[in-house]
Design goal:
With 346 residues, the protein is α/β, with parallel strands linked by helices. Helix 1 packs parallel to helix 2 and helix 5 runs parallel beside helix 6. The chain starts with a strand and ends with a strand.
Length: 346
């Protein structure tokens, strides 16, 4: 039984999700203690609980301590079963918890399940402190497709805080192995696309976001290749501004969500400032994608490497968790909060 301290480092939810994913994949029984112990609301929140329940269901696992607020769970995985699955974050308690964090938890076990799987996830698609569905479809999945992953992902309906009610459908094709990648910085001209989206709000808000974003990027000497004004179906109200940046040797995504009393121009500004730091670093990956690629790098055949615009504590923590489960080793150069390089050395 492997014991994981869910309070070490940063990202208690991340520690939980990575541990669940790799426990299912490796058949390792685990105990996770002190889950999110340093948070104002410690223990499992609805999206964390759904991640645990979903992981247990796809591998017929036994799960103890599975309830909202629990700070300790015991998970004994069984055999992973490909197939059709549907999970709703609000099933146990009304919530706009992130469906995309659940998706990333069960993705890797299902990738290696031997047959195709289809999953339907209901809850929040565009909520704070998690990748939006735009980030998943435009940044995360294109990045891991370079390693051989094949996944069709569609957002049927957007879900914002606090209403939730979003829905995504993903079809995961099985693969036998992942390929190593080397992403060390842009080696070709940037392809930059902007998305300004709204749900149940006046179209002028999306236009203001887009115009502000264009002005910010042009001040950096960046001219987008494409812009989109979108109106997502949703039961709630919300806005998104997203920057999709790709090159032969680099990929990054930058999102900002609307908030009550937050000007549309400020929504665009937040994403543009993150993009500016990334663009000026000449690194390959944005800081969020950097920690999200650690699991596939660890599972790939061969040794991968990338440069990141910022070495974060989340990145370092995720590496520590992965190294507990798999016979791999990573080397990180660069200071916390600064650009750096990550290499798998074993």
């Amino acid at each position: 039984m492997l014991v994981i301290d869910g309070s070490f480092g940063e990202g208690g939810g991340q520690i939980l999700r990575t541990s669940l994913s790799l426990a299912a994949l490796t058949g390792t029984s685990i105990t996770i203690e002190n889950i999110r112990a340093r948070r104002d609301k410690p223990g499992l929140r609805p999206q964390h609980l759904t991640s645990a329940l979903a992981t247990a269901e796809i591998c017929s696992g036994a799960l103890e301590g599975a309830e909202v607020g629990s700070t300790r769970i015991v998970f004994r995985p069984g055999k992973i079963k490909p197939g059709y699955y549907e999970f709703d974050v609000s099933e146990n308690r009304a919530s706009a918890g992130s469906v995309n964090l659940i998706f990333q938890t069960i993705l890797w076990p299902l990738v290696f399940a031997g047959k195709r799987s289809k999953i339907v996830l209901k809850g929040g698609t565009h909520v704070p402190f998690s990748p939006s569905s735009d980030y998943i479809s435009r940044t995360f999945l294109p990045a891991v497709s370079r390693m051989g992953l094949q996944c069709r992902y569609q957002m049927q309906r957007a879900g914002y805080y606090p209403a939730g009610g979003g829905e995504v459908v993903a079809e995961i094709q099985p693969i036998e192995s992942l390929q190593a990648v080397s992403l060390l910085g842009p080696t070709s001209r940037w392809n930059v696309e902007l998305v300004s989206a709204i749900s149940n709000l006046h179209p002028s808000i999306a236009e203001r976001q887009l115009n502000a974003g264009l002005a910010h990027l042009r001040s950096l000497g960046v001219v987008p290749n494409r812009t989109e004004l979108l109106n997502y179906p949703s039961r709630g109200k919300g806005t998104l501004f997203f920057i999709d940046a790709k090159s032969d040797g680099a990929i990054g995504g930058f999102q900002s969500l609307g908030e009550l009393k937050k000007r549309a121009e400020d929504v665009a500004k937040d994403a543009c400032e993150e993009f500016k730091a990334y663009h000026e670093s000449l690194a390959a990956l944005d800081k969020h994608l950097s920690d999200q690629l650690i699991i596939p790098m660890a599972l790939a055949d061969g040794l991968s490497q990338f440069t990141t615009c910022e070495v974060t504590q989340h990145l370092v923590t995720n590496i520590s968790v992965v190294e507990r489960f798999l016979d791999v080793r990573f080397e990180v150069t660069g200071q916390l909060g600064k650009p750096g390089t990550v290499r798998r050395v074993k």
